[in-house]
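Duplicate of #3305? Posting structure anyway:
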């Protein structure tokens, strides 16, 4: 799923990672899937992305091993949604560090607000991406809640392999 150039065979691990993750849609799709919004309609509505672009990105993310297709029931018929793989769940520290960086180094839009990332295992807000800044435990999606004041929402994250209910 190359962004501009094929870096899949490059010796530099950053370039190889960007070959998979360099498209900005990839990380926001993973964010939403980790928030339990792995159904196509939920992703489409929340991201504001065209159906064609979303379909291409999802197909590429499955091929890259970031997402897996999972069946679910909708009004009596079986449909397919998307769940994070372990590879995608391991991006949680990257997503959380991006959020922390964004709060420190970008201008807060009107009606915005600080987004606490709460480690549910200890009940405290963490200020780091990989380990809890309070208890020191490794952070995994199924133990995290992101509080989004601009949406008046508490979004619990889900484990790898879980579709979620949204």
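Output from current build:
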């Amino acid at each position: 799923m190359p962004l501009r150039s094929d870096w899949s065979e490059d010796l530099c691990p950053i370039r190889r990672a960007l070959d998979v993750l360099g498209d900005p849609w990839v990380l926001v799709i993973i964010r939403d899937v980790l928030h339990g919004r792995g159904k196509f309609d939920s992703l489409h509505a929340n991201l504001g992305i065209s159906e064609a672009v979303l379909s291409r990105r999802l197909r590429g993310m499955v091929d890259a091993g970031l997402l897996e297709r999972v069946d679910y029931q909708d009004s009596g018929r079986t449909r397919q949604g998307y769940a994070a793989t372990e590879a995608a769940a391991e991006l949680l520290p990257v997503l959380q560090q991006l959020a922390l960086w964004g709060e420190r180094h970008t201008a807060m839009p009107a009606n915005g607000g600080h987004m606490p990332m709460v480690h549910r295992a200890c009940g405290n807000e963490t200020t780091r991406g990989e380990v809890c800044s309070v208890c020191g435990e490794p952070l995994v999606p199924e133990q995290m809640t992101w509080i989004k004041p601009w949406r008046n929402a508490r979004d619990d994250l889900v484990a790898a392999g879980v579709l979620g209910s949204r």
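Confirmed duplicate; merging threads. The two ends are 27 Å apart (CA to CA). The mean pLDDT is 93.
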